[in-house]
Design a protein that fits this description.
The protein is mainly α and 258 residues long. 70% of the residues lie in helices and 2% in strands. It has 10 helices and 2 strands, in the order αααααααααββα. It is globular and about 80 Å long.
């Protein structure tokens, strides 16, 4: 039993930076929800934590400088993403989306408005933990012991853990997240409240890719051609009643084509 506890302690000691990164990324996403007045249900802790477990995985059981640098860079990128969503929500009661790439022509006007929402207090709230994370990373790196890595330092057990994390995301949570995404597709506030800002962006990217693929398959030239052929065609339908009685209506061929 004593040996088991020693091994568990060594596993934790070798993964301070990974565990810390996952906890703080989970905290930061839930903090944004709290500041925006959203409810935080118990299941949200697991849903929110699932994505950071993958994001920070490359730093698992690593003691080299590169893994620590990677962890801090990823943490900083996620912090910017969450803060940007927080500011944008205060501007438009909406969250950022890849679909807004098409609105880049309005970027200057939006940027001018957003700059008035950025203040020292909000920056401090969302980035003070980045400084703490960096300091702790330096201390862990400085005082780490150069002993052999225990258990999950070996190649196969480590990737078994990765597979388990992916199963948690894809098999256990994915169906639940997809259902909630569909339920709240027209209300992004409720969507983020129920699937976290991380899963919201993942689902948003999936939707963008799907739509881009559909656009490539649709022959918009053919649709325009049909429209031009039928836009002058008008019929009088005596079967219409009420305000539509004996009114002229456009041919619905284009609707049939779709």
């Amino acid at each position: 039993m004593k040996k088991v506890f020693i091994r568990l302690f060594n596993i934790l000691r070798n993964n301070y930076i990974y565990i810390l990164g996952v906890i703080l990324l989970t905290y930061k996403a839930l903090l944004m929800n709290k500041l925006l007045g959203m409810n935080i249900e118990k299941e949200m802790y697991l849903i929110t934590m699932a994505v950071p477990m993958i994001i920070m995985f490359p730093s698992m059981n690593k003691k080299g400088k590169r893994s620590f640098i990677f962890a801090n860079i990823m943490y900083f990128i996620c912090s910017i993403l969450i803060y940007a969503n927080y500011i944008y929500y205060n501007y438009s009661t909406n969250f950022l989306s890849v679909f807004q790439i098409e609105n880049v022509k309005y970027a200057e006007e939006i940027g001018m408005s957003l700059q008035y929402l950025i203040n020292f207090k909000s920056v401090l709230i969302f980035f003070i933990d980045n400084i703490i994370f960096l300091i702790l990373s330096i201390l862990i790196l400085k005082f780490r012991k150069k002993d052999k890595l225990m258990i999950i330092g070996k190649k196969y057990p480590k990737y078994i853990i990765l597979v388990l994390i992916i199963i948690l995301n894809v098999v256990v949570l994915n169906k639940k997240v997809d259902e909630k995404y569909e339920n709240y597709v027209y209300n992004k506030t409720l969507m983020v409240e129920h699937i976290s800002i991380y899963y919201y962006h993942l689902e948003d990217i999936k939707d963008y890719i799907k739509e881009s693929f559909i656009k490539e398959k649709v022959d918009y030239g053919k649709i325009s051609e049909i429209y031009e052929q039928n836009k002058e065609e008008k019929i009088v339908n005596k079967d219409f009643t009420g305000i539509a009685r004996r009114k002229k209506c456009y041919n619905s061929a284009i609707r049939k084509y779709k």
